[in-house]
Fold this sequence. Notes:
By secondary structure, chain A is α/β, with parallel strands linked by helices. Chain A has three domains: 71 residues, Winged helix-like DNA-binding domain superfamily/Winged helix DNA-binding domain (Arc Repressor Mutant, subunit A); 126 residues, Nucleotidyltransferase, domain 5; 150 residues, ATPase, nucleotide binding domain (Nucleotidyltransferase, domain 5), CATH 3.30.420. Helix content of chain A is 43%, strand content 22%. In chain A, strands 5-4-3-6-10 form a five-stranded mixed β-sheet, with helices on both faces. Chain A has a five-stranded mixed β-sheet with strand order 13-12-11-14-15, with helices on both faces. In chain A, strand 8 and strand 9 form a beta hairpin. In chain A, helix 1 crosses helix 2, helix 4 packs across helix 5 and helix 9 crosses helix 11. Chain A is globular and about 70 Å long. Chain A starts with a helix and ends with a helix. In chain A, 49% of the residues are buried.
Amino acid sequence: MLPEHARSHNRALVLQTLYTTGAQSRADLARGTGLTRVTVSDLVAELMAEGLVVELGQREDARPGKPATLLDVDRGAFRIVGIDVSGHRVVRGAVLDLSGAILERAESPLGGATGERAFELVAELAARLAALATAPVLGVGIGTPGVVDPRGTVRSAPNLGWTDLPLQARLSARLGLPVHATNDANAAVLAEHGAAEADDLMLVKIGHGVGSGLIVGGRLVTGSGFASGEIGHVVVGTDGGPRCVCGRDGCLEAWLSVPRLTEQLDALGADADEAARAEVLAEAGRRLGIVLAPVVGALDLPEIVLSGPAHLLDGPLIDAALETLRKRTMAEQTRDLRLRMTAHGQDIVLHGTAVMVLSGELGVS
Amino acid sequence: MLPEHARSHNRALVLQTLYTTGAQSRADLARGTGLTRVTVSDLVAELMAEGLVVELGQREDARPGKPATLLDVDRGAFRIVGIDVSGHRVVRGAVLDLSGAILERAESPLGGATGERAFELVAELAARLAALATAPVLGVGIGTPGVVDPRGTVRSAPNLGWTDLPLQARLSARLGLPVHATNDANAAVLAEHGAAEADDLMLVKIGHGVGSGLIVGGRLVTGSGFASGEIGHVVVGTDGGPRCVCGRDGCLEAWLSVPRLTEQLDALGADADEAARAEVLAEAGRRLGIVLAPVVGALDLPEIVLSGPAHLLDGPLIDAALETLRKRTMAEQTRDLRLRMTAHGQDIVLHGTAVMVLSGELGVS
DNA sequence: GAAGTTTGTTCGTAAGCTTTACTAACTTTC
DNA sequence: GAAAGTTAGTAAAGCTTACGAACAAACTTC
C-alpha cells in the first residue's frame, strides 16, 4: 500500500460522493468525505483536468458567506459501450452516458453462430457502437452467459461454444479500449445494486435458463470456480419433477425456465381459465421459493430481485415464491424480505455492464 | 484515507506475512510484501518496540552475502482469552497464545442461568482467565449463540435470555481489555478459515441446534440483520418431516440436531443392528445435503466443514450428505467439493475467538 | 457600515515510502 | 589467499500526499 494508493482511493471517494449525491461544492465534499477542503480542492482540480468533473456556477440560494461553486460529475463527458450476449437469438448493444442512460442502441442477430464467429459478431457490434459515440469512450462492458473469470476470460459458455476464450483481452487489444467482461447474471445484479440501498442482494435471472447473481457485504460474489449463481440445475424438493435437459428430474430450470412455462401455459389451450394459468405460475413460484429458502437463511438476505418476462413472473409466480419463502424460513429473517421485479426491464444486463465499467475505470458505482 | 492508514495497512501486512510464513529475514519480508527493505526495516523496528516481533539470530545455512537476521512473531508475548458460551450446560473458557494454542482452561456451569446472571458468569470467567495469563492479554474473544451485531451487542439470544445486551462494551469496560464478540458459528468458521486455504468456506455447527457460519471472498458474512447462517429452521424437502420446536414440520434442526439423532438411535434399542443405525444417520445426512445444495450452487462453495459430535456426524451422515449434494447440483461445481469434519474438535469456538482477537487487534488472521 | 459566516486558496509542515548509496559479512572464483 | 560477486541491513535525500493555519473574497445580518 503506497501513498498513491491512498490518493486514488480518496480520488474515487470524492468522485463517488459527487456521483451519488449530485451537485455540491468543494466544502460540501470535504464534509461528506471527511477530507479537508484543501485536499478536496486538489483532487477536484485533478478530476476537472481529466474532464470528469465540471463547475456548474455559483449556488443560487441566499446564505451567509462566500457563495459556493457547485461541482458535478460531467455525465456527458464520456460514453460507455455495453454488450449483452445473454440473448438467445441476438446480441444487444448500447452506448450509454456516465449516468447509465442509453443513448444509442444496436443489435446483431446471432443466427446460431458459435465459437470464433460469435466472437466476431460481438467485436463488430462493439466497434460499431464505439464509432457511434459522440464523446470519448470510457470503456466497454460485456455480459455473457457462462463462467467468466476475473480477467474476463470465458472459461466455459456451452451455448456460444466458448471455452477459455480471453474475451476481455482480445477485445481490448482489438478496440484499443478498456474492456470488462462478466457473467450476465452478475452484470444484472450490479445494475440492480446501483439503485438498491442494501449491501446484500440476490438477482434471479429467468430466461431460456435460470441463473443468479449475488452481492454480499456490498461485493459481488464470484465463487471459488467463478461459477457463483448457478442455481438453474439445483434439484428442487424431494418429489421428483419434470425431466431437465441435464438429464435429472426436478432441476429449478425444468420448473421455471421461460420455454418451460410458456409450453405449460400453451398446453392449457388459448381458452384456459385464469385460475388454471395462475396455478401453473404459482407452482413455479413455489419451486423458486423452495430453492431460495436455504440461501436466504444462510446469507440473511434482505432482498431478492427477479429479472425476466414480467407477464410470466410478475403476479402469481412472485407472490407464491414469497409466500413459500416465508413459510420455509425463520419469521424474523423473512419478515422484512422483499421480493420484486427489476425496474430495468430488458436492459438490465446493459445497465449492469455500465456499472461494471464505471466501477472498474473510475471506482464509482 | 490518510497516510497513516496506509502505514497501518503495511504494518499489518508485514505482521501477517511473518505470522503465516514463519521465521524469515527483513529482506524476505520485503520480497514477500512488495515493500522495500527500508520500509520493512522501519516497520519491523516499530513491531519489535511493541514486543510483537523478535529477532531469532542469524540464519544458519551457507549462502553468499551477509547472513540474514531471522525474525518471527513472538507468539508467547501476549495472551488471548477466549470464551465459548455456545454450550448448553457450561461456559467454557481458555487462555491462548498468539499461535492459537490453548495454555489454560476453565469453565463455569451455566446451571440454567439467563439474563444478567448469565452475563455475570461470563464476566467472572473472563476475569479469572485474564488473571491466569502469564503475559499481557491482547484481548478477549467471545462466541455466543444468537444474533450479534458488529459492535458486539447481542441483539437476541433466546436460550440465554439476552436481548440487546451490549456484551462487548460492558465486558470491555469491566475488564479494561479489548473485547470482541460474535456468533458462535461465525467464530467457528473463523477458526476453520485460519487453517483453510480457500477464500470461500461454510461451517455447519451441529449441536443442540443447527447453525452455520460463512466466509465468502475471504470475508465473514454477517447478513443484513446480522443473522447469517441461520439454516436450522429452514424447511427441508417437500415431504413433511418431524415436528420442530418452532412449530413447523421438517426444519433442518428437526432432522439433524444432536438430541434428535440421539433420540432416534436410542429408539432403535441398544442391540440394534449397525445397518439400521447407519440408515438413521444417512437420512439425516441426505436432509443436510438437500438444504446445502442451493447454497453451494449459488455461492460456488468449494468446501463445507462440519462441527459437532464425530460419532454421529463422521460416517454415514457425512457420506450421505456429500452424495446428496453431488446428485442435486451441477457436476462441474461439486466435483471438487470437499465435505469434512473440523480438526478443531470441541475447541473450535475457542480457537475462533482467538482468530477474531488476532484479526481485530493486529490485523492478522 | 461593521461584524459574522462561508468558501476556496496559499503556504508551510508532518508522515510515509522510495531511490540511491553505503557498510558489513558472507561465498565463489581464479 | 586475494579479488570479485552477492546479500542484508541502514542512512540520507527526495517525492508524494494530506493536513493545519492563515487569508482573501464574497456574501448576510444587525
